[in-house]
Amino acid sequence: MTYNKKTIEDVEVAGKKILVRCDFNVPVKDGVITSDKRIVEALPTIKYLKSKGAMVILCSHMGKPHNVFDAKIKLNKKEVAAIDALPEAEREAATAAAVEKAKKDVKKFSLKVVADKLNELLGGGVVFASDTVGEDARAKVAAMKPGDIVLLENTRFTALEEKNDPEFSKQLGSLAELFVNDAFGTAHRAHASTAGVAQHAGLPAVCGYLIQKEIGIMGKALSNPERPFVAILGGAKVADKLNVINNLLTKVDTLIIGGGMAYTFLAAKGYGVGGSLLDESKLDYCKDMMKKAEEKGVKLLLPVDTTVAKEFPDPIDAPIDVKIVDSDKIPADMQGLDIGPATMKLYADAVKNAKTVVWNGPMGVFENPTLAKGTIAVAQALADSSATTIVGGGDSAAACEQLGYANRITHISTGGGASLEFLEGLELPGIACLEDK
Questions:
Q1: Strand pairing of 72-73 and 68-69?
Q2: Distance, CA of 376 to CA of 338 (rounded, Å)
Q3: Which CATH code is given to the segment(s) 220-424?
């Protein structure tokens, strides 16, 4: 899927009220943002619009506040069932306690903390609205002057957001004259604030700098890559990457498989995989993909050795005894949890000779220091490469950032799920709704 969408530089923005969908879904602990990367990524678009005299209305979701609907507290089915199971005399107190907890969740998921961080990064001038389309939002938007910035409250504080409700989309869209989507991380979701304001409210829609960068770099890699083109796929389940593998086999010169999904491929080759993660329903699929790779002249690299242990670490970061075995000799009473050193070298050599590399998914149980070596080796190989290197969000991005390699990677995507669907060749609703050039 390639896109050629209008950007904020293709339209007149001066003096206009512009609704900008950002990805402010940042990690917060004890009321403090622990990583402001996504906020920083939004700044170029915000600063451009402000400098051009636009009135900038920012919106985003944060977290999954599913029991907070339209500023009222609604207990979920599990909570209600638990209360109903109690003796009648205890239900009233239990309900009150659950509602109090939910009220704390409202505060926990509020974008007020993001407004404070934006004011810090922009030197002030960001006004926070305590609702999304209610009285406070409408009043603060009505009072805006050119160059002003208003941040609306969490769009998911209403259930209508994720339902892409036409009426809610229209209410949100009525605040502005133009829609700018700059949230690649949610572009694969057809929600009110990602696609509905263009679909239902009829707002003209363009992309910001972040989405422009994402679709430009990844689009070129998939449609017109410098070769050799190497793709590296990891993660736990083959099922999660079925269509990605199928699509990439039509585009790449080498496809590298790691992570838990590799064991289903190894089993499809007739190897015993012990207690390793195995999806028996996908064995024929893996055989078909290996055959397709052979027919298309694509090198499909699988682990030649494996880091095995008696059992999965519990807790996940606990010390663990491991040994290295050939991938066709995994003991019946052990399970593969990372690639081995020979595989690390094999994969690094493939990257070394590449001109374009796309990586999505860890090579092992990255959360455990002993089982993170394969993922670290791949991150190192990309960092050392002179190729165009693209990392598709999630654990792969976290690995590059934690290791200090982020500035040595051409592009780290801001969207795990979105980048995966992009690699599948799927149309992303939050981008499809934008105007073509």
A1: antiparallel
A2: 11
A3: 3.40.50.1260
Q: CA–CA separation, 217 vs 437, rounded Å?
A: 17
Cβ atoms of residues 202 and 371 within 8 Å: no
CATH class of 8-65+109-209: alpha beta
Which of 171, 257, 214 shows the shortest CA–CA distance to 397?
214
Question: H/E/C letters for each residue in 35-92?
Answer: CCHHHHHHHHHHHHHHHCCCEEEEECCCCCCCCEECCEECCCHHHHHHHHCCCHHHHH
Report how far apart the first and last C-alpha atoms of the chain are (Å, whole number): 16
Q: What is the pLDDT of residues 26-84, one digit of tens each?
A: 999 989 999 898 999 999 999 999 999 999 999 999 998 865 555 566 677 787 888 89
**Residues found in the chain:** 437
> Which among 257, 292, 263 is positioned nearest to 280, based on CA atoms?
263
Tell me the pTM: 0.84
Half-sphere exposure of 136 (CA within 13 A, CB side): 11
Residue 393 annotated among the catalytic residues of the structure? no
Question: Using one digit for the tens of pLDDT, what is the confidence trace for 104-135?
Answer: 767 789 999 999 999 999 999 999 999 999 99
Please tell me which residue in 364, 374, 393, 394 is annotated as part of the active site.
394
> Within a 13 Å sphere around the CA of 124, how many CA atoms are in the beta-carbon half?
0
> In the annotation, is 147 catalytic?
no
What angle, rounded to 10 degrees, do the helices at 37-51 and 112-122 form? 60
- Cα angle 147-152-158, degrees, rounded to a multiple of 5: 160
Residue type for 129, please? A
Does the active-site annotation cover 31? no
Q: Which residue has the tokens 């790449």?
A: 252
Q: How far is residue 28's CA from residue 44's CA, in Å, rounded to a whole number? A: 23
Residue 242 backbone dihedrals phi, psi, to 5 degrees: -50, -55
The Cα-based distances of 428 to 2, 243, 423 in angstroms read: 11, 15, 11
In the annotation, is 329 catalytic?
no
Backbone angles phi, psi at 362, to 5 degrees: -70, 160
C-alpha–C-alpha distance, residues 352 and 366, integer Å: 23
Q: Which of 163, 220, 237, 292 is catalytic?
A: 237
Kindly state the tokens that stand for 26.
Answer: 């940042």
| Tokens found for residue 319 | 């010390």
Catalytic residue among 5, 17, 21, 38: 38
C-alpha–C-alpha distance, residues 171 and 19, integer Å: 12
Dist CA 134 CA 111 (whole Å):
15
Angstrom CA distances, 317 to 28, 174, 314, 339, 360, stand at 22, 49, 7, 17, 22
3-state helix, strand, coil in the chain (%, to 5): 45, 15, 40
